[in-house]
Amino acid sequence: MSSVFYSLRYAAILMLFITAAKFSSYAQTGLEACEEHHDRFCRHYPEEVFVPKFAWRNDWQSPLVHKYDVTFYHLDINVSHTSVSVGGTVHIYGKVVAPVLDTFAFELITAHNISSIVFNGVTATNYGRVGDNVLVPVNPLQQGQNFVASITYQGTPPTGGFFAGVSNAYSSQWQKSVTWSLSEPFAAKDWFPVKQDLNDKADSVWVFLTSPAGTKAGSQGILTNVVTLPDGKVRHEWKSRYPIAYYLISYAVADYQDYSIYAKPQAMGGDSVLVQNYVYNHPNYLPQQKNNIDKVVPMIELFSDLFTLYPFHQEKYGHALTQLGGGMEHQTMTTIGSFSFNLVAHELGHMWFGDNVTCATWSDIWINEGFATYSNYLAQYYINGPQSGNSFMISTQNNVMSQPGGSVYIPPSEINPDNVWRIFNGRLSYDKGASIIHVLRHEINNDSLFFAVLRTFQTQFKDSTATGDDFKMVAQQVTGMDFTQFFNQWYYGEGYPRYAIAWWMEGNNLRMNVVQTTTASTPLFVMTMPYRLIFNDGSSQDIRLLQDANMKQFTVPVNKQVVSIQVDPLNWTFEQVTGITVGMPERQNEAMFSIGPNPSQGKTFVYFPEEASGQATITISDNSGKLVYRSNLQQETRQFVLPEFVPGLYFVTLTRNGARHTEKLVVLRP
Length: 670
What we know:
The chain is an alpha+beta fold.
């Protein structure tokens, strides 16, 4: 155990750190494996399962870690397939970015005993530990100077739950013990000394893993050497020269067999990408799973065509099989629990969206999960066929609409280690994230441009990080379109649209009154809505109409009799159609209005068509018929905010120019 000595200067700093530190309580629970219908996600747990809080984890981070950039990690550690214990020496190479660095800080949970810290060749004796922060006074370095710190440690991190830094399990089916790491989002410090900063990618990484005889240990990059040690243990030496985020460094160890195959993306001109799979060394495993594993080859080739060449083609792609309930996109070697089509496609998609380009903040997890889920859709559509792709998208959209609210962007106030489920919310980060990409593709209305956006984004932010706004910037640059409104409503906003449509024929014109209300705080989704017109001779015509007001009236010239209308027949957007009325609406233009959101849990808006004219009176009665509100509206009113009412059923009536119409309003508790 290190001796602890604080100068007055460090004592003051540490007291401030202790005051700011945040501790959480621990409750042991077992987390279920992801259910089959969740397998298209790298879902970390079913949403309804309780997520444990660990008393041993202090997730406050010292600001001193931001005084340097990590350039290289070299992990030389001992691991086992039967235990979560881990230890060895980790070398952190860095470059000073602050004016002066006089304290070297890194993160490592207190379950690990530190036996030695050597900084630039000098053994540190006077260092302190505050929560999970290790603070090492050093001879001052100036901005731009380089250093290397070597930390020797050993410990057994607490485990349990998907988000434990290291997990161990036994497969009774395959009779194998296996241990694996999972650092996303905050648990790298559970198993190695680290700086947990999304925007500080190490330029390269070596991971040397010493494990018991008869095991293989997988990790990042290329396996450069396998050394049998005098005690019979074996050291697998993995080296990667690609930039890597801290949480994508990993290991998995078991009695594995190596099943390697090759993909040949068109851009490589006949050359190939190694796909190295570490699967259980059981005589029945590979024969049963080979066909599923092999499906990753056409996926790599497809995504290389659509997104850019596989980002790590000079090293490999691969999988390390574990008992994980889902998968985790560790760079160049995904940790995976099964080889279902959707799970493999999702994790592979992360190599572009999440690994090559990483979310700059956890608020922008859409950069990772939304695009990886859309990769599921693309793999289904282009490999298994349009029907499979459409089924996937319909299921995705329906999950989004299973609840009324929620934004894809996560407010920073909601990002904390006790609220990890919000980052990896399947309905919002994954499904709504993918669904709005599909809507964006429909708005661009040009697949060449849409995929050019994805490729430009990959090229422009390669080996780096990006936010949702960064993607918006690229989309605007490539297409020349303004997506400010799109992102405000779909990315930052909440809910989804509902449509009520009345239509009729006037000579050779189709007349449509289209009312859009919404389910949450976003009052209007300005969007291009696709419709299919079915004519009396059995033919059809697809049209696109811009909905830029809550109440919109359209006149569409046609040369045949329309007999029915389909809304969004190809499932480009996600919305609920509350009704399609055929024939001239009884209420006429003067009395038309709509209410949204309805049901309401806060502000409620009344919307009027652009053509409405003349003064109007609005009255509201409760369910007993008692008048609770009355107001006269001016002629130019297009939108009106209702007062807040206690929960219940209300009847809203508008009278204008002798026309009268009533709508029901349901008010729920906030």
